[in-house]
Amino acid sequence: MRASEADILILPGMGGGTPDHWYNRWAQKLSTARRVEQRNFDRPHLDEWAARISNAAAAATRPVILVGHSMGAVTACLIAADLPNVAAAMLVAPASPRVLLTLENVDRAFAHYVQRRAYFPCLLVASRNDPYATYEESTERASALGATLVDAGESGHINPDSGHGPWPEGLMRFAHFLGQVKAPNA
């Protein structure tokens, strides 16, 4: 599948990201990509975030590719089995339930939700020194989701603070992954 054959939904993390964050750059660079905006990026609430993502997926006119970071990736992980029209997902640095319980403005439902298996191909990109999830926690989440785990080495939270503003390696990985995804009815 090519990017032009899909509706790419960018799922930002908590705070919504700075203009130089890799996912905001991708939203501008990829012609069929758009950010899923949340009512409040600073106080994530699972039901609200899930509804916005689900509505965006349902409104898509082409197969959906999810690209999530941090809380956006967590939300996609938790609702993946319920989303319509999804062909694939690339989920980067989702926070662990253990860490989510320590974050003051985050709805506790994110940490207590049971992970279910996705019905579409999934990549979960994890760092070995992410302050929001150990590599072992990411490995467990990928297994429960049925995702292929991608070891990003020591990359922190894979955000501008860890030197991943443009993140060209991630874009190359995304393009390669898309190339392996079969378009529906293909």
What do these coordinates show?
The chain is an alpha/beta fold and 186 residues long. The chain has helices spanning 22-29, 46-59, 71-79, 97-100, 109-112, 135-145, 168-180, and strands at residues 7-11, 33-35, 64-69, 86-92, 122-126, 148-151.
Give the key terms.
186 residues; 6-stranded parallel beta sheet; 7 helices; Rossmann fold; alpha/beta
Major sheet: arrangement of strands: 2-1-3-4-5-6
CATH class term: Alpha Beta
What class, by secondary structure content?
Answer: alpha/beta
Percent helix = 25-40%
- The CATH architecture classification is 3-Layer(aba) Sandwich
Quick one: overall form?
globular
Uncertain spans:
none
CATH superfamily annotation: Alpha/Beta hydrolase fold, catalytic domain
Rg for CA atoms: 15 Å
Q: How does the SSE layout of this entry go?
A:
Layout: E1 7-11, H1 22-29, E2 33-35, H2 46-59, E3 64-69, H3 71-79, E4 86-92, H4 97-100, H5 109-112, E5 122-126, H6 135-145, E6 148-151, H7 168-180
Parallel strand pairs: 1-2, 1-3, 3-4, 4-5, 5-6
Helix pairs in contact: 2-3
